[in-house]
Amino acid sequence: RVIETLAALQMNWVALRIDNRLRYERDPDWARGPDAPTKQELSELVAFAESLGLEVIPMTQCFSHFSYFTGKEKYRHFAEVQDPAPDARHKYWNYCPRHPEVHEQLVFPLIEEQLECFPNAKYFHVGLDEITFEPIGVCPRCQGAPGGELLAEEILRLHGFLKQRGLRMGMWGDQLLVEHNGKPPYNTAEALPKVPRDVIIFDW
User: Fold this and answer.
1) Side-chain half-sphere of 92: how many Cα atoms within 13 Å?
2) CA angle 109, 13, 202 (to 5 degrees)
3) Which residue from 60, 124, 160, 192 has the fewest beta carbons nearer than 10 Å?
4) pLDDT digits 0-9 by tens, 60-73
């Protein structure tokens, strides 16, 4: 119904945020549960939107909002903050961007399986917003690294992965704004000069 409404309003694209909202085949534990759509259902939804003239952009959250996965014991070792405060609002929120296995074992396989449902995709939205809702640069691999350096590394890593697959990368822009979430103490806005010029910044 939402897609039909967007088409009636002559919108020309829609982003579908996936995260754990898919019954993955590589690892069923990635799905939020049996109510998650199957790959066939998602593919049919994408085809339906395209039949109405909408370009469909797949989206999944990278770096932050990752407690869908790192909140599970199986993937807890990928979390940046291993021992969050009991009263912390955001627990296991970020994955460690420098963990040697997080991309090859989790992030990239997630995206690859999602893309099977988007055969005509030209773009992929990687999220990257609200990273500083939880401390960054605190695990043994990242400790002492400036926030701008960590964010720039992750942007370049994701950008390279997507470019190899012929996809243009999109991301939220809040962490690149010094007057927004890119401010001290983590200063992620310092990553801005290193962002490839073909990355599309979505206004958060």
Assistant:
1) 15
2) 70
3) 160
4) 999 999 999 999 99
